[in-house]
Amino acid sequence: MAEAQEGPGRRGKRAGAEAEEPAEAEEAERPGRRRRSFEPAPEPLGTTVLHDTVSTRPQPLPARHFDTRTTEPISFFLSSLEELLAWQPDSNDDFNVSAVPLAKRQPPLRSKRPRTLVCHDMRGGYLEDRFIQGSATHNPYVFYHWRYIDIFVYFSHHAVTIPPVCWTNAAHRNGVPVLGTFITEWTDGEKLCEAFLAGGEEAYRAVSEQLARIAQHYRFDGWLVNMENTLSAAAVGNLPPFLRHLTAQVHSAVPEGLVIWYDSVLQNSTLKWQNELNEENRVFFDACDGLFTNYNWKEEHLERTRGLAGPRHTDVYVGIDVFARGDVIGGGFDTDKSLRLIRQYGLSAAIFAPGWVYEHLGAENFLHNENKFWGLLAEYLPTHSICTLPLATSFSLGMGTSRFLAGKEEQVGPWYDLSTQEIQPLYAEREGRLSTSCCLQDAWSGGSSLRVQGTIPAGEEHVAIRLFSLQMPAPPKLFLTLLYKLEGPHPDEFTVALELTTWDSSSCHEGDVTSLPGRGSSPCNAQRLSKAAAPPPQLRMGAEASHTRHADDRQAPELGKHEAGFPPWCPVPRAGEGAAVPQRSASTPSTATPGRKGRHGAQALRLGGRRPLRMPPRSATHWLSLPAAGCGAGAERGPSGASSRSVLATALLRDSLARCVCGQYGTFTWLLPLCFFFFLLLCF
Prior knowledge:
Shape: globular
Number of strands: 29
Strand content: 15-25%
């Protein structure tokens, strides 16, 4: 109150006061003069005076949107039905809205192949990941095996779990949709369900519409609905209509939206987990997009589920608890045992709490253990492909021990911000020869780079590992840039190459990308890349500036059939067919290959490695041209007249691939990259 009274006297000014202030100051400085009074003159009768009160006391920040200790903006949840129904978009919400649209992928999510759902449940949720602008967290939990999964669920035991925006940004960038969780449990959950399900159509429609609005506003992709409490007869009778209305609302509000039901309540209103799809819970499965089963199943449950699901068998996500609680198959590093059985019946899988790797084994060796865990599962995880251009990544995980920019360490100290995680590759290992992993000690941009390391056995000259799978119509020209650094005892003994192989296809393949078209009786026709003229003027300056050495004319060793990326059923083109003979164009920017020659075709680019240890990273740029259309008479043309031949690039040795190749013998460690810019652009 005192501040309100003093405010106008301290800060209020009459009209024209700015012009009077200098004269008043001058009079005050002259000695012998009486100081003028600053009391406001009495206002004439009938005049209304308005005073504006100004307070310097800071206003409290809303605890839901800002951390009370640090004042940082945070992601949040809703704890009750009242909070859910009262929710409205708020200006403080802007931080929580995802800025990354869901990237397109091939095959589409709804294609009829088994899917993999990951349900993230760690210590109640909303840990360091709640800080929207990141935090200085040492050894945080991160997830980066996005190419192996199809759906990501953020789970907590709060009534309405809104996924932290950093998870939505990272998943969307890698083509994975994100679901929040709507959960009711125990006595409080029973009361909540009674309030909106037993109350009639108007009540449950209000809840479903509000959930759809929340998903639309924050730009995530739907809900996992989990009701683990008993229901009254009236409530369970309204549950299927509620699920149908919620699913319709989410589909309308969110592109590619999903609603998945967790195996809990039965149609007779009792709470009893079934561990399968059966007649007791089928009514809820039929009302939404999928069923997430409980974890205590046996093989007979899978057999019955497959029979009852019929053509919707891939909409059943069989639960796998990585913590192996209860009577389960597998768990931990034996999770592959569960996954193997699930795939035998053509069902989808829901991997619950893969953060076991971090929580159980500790944070110190987390990245190594994480790669081991997912490497054991990779055989049973169909990957999805990138299908849009351009593609550019430096592989940053969105965390690190330092921040790097253009290969230089800019700031020392731990940091964590999943929103900055870049597009991630396929983290693969080839029978102990080669493996990819995350390197936190050196990077081009962000906090980490991709390390490729392993051993080239005696008697072999070339080993390869897959990085990306691509499915898209092939443009007539591609621009590729690679920046890498070689490390190890003999870095000058190796040659590095980036490879891209194209395959003829009348349309993009929507099945398992590890089973490409052409495996049957009709052979697949691998198209090799060939060099074209120099890049257009807009790109030429930057490309030429990145080279300080030129390649000589020595021919690199030839690749064998499988190492060249040709599947076993595909004939290898002979010399003269644009496949096995290296070429060079004087107008093409030279590769960063001191002592090695640029290659094309299945190898696409061959980048040399004759450089001393710890040299700065080096760039190599190629402007490449794809052969003209198609697969004989079977080729089609799109609306623009372009060939419908597709890039079907994967790294399995029997399939088309985009991969790195190393030559000579010995053991090596190769950082790829400190920057790996892999651009595929239409010609200007």
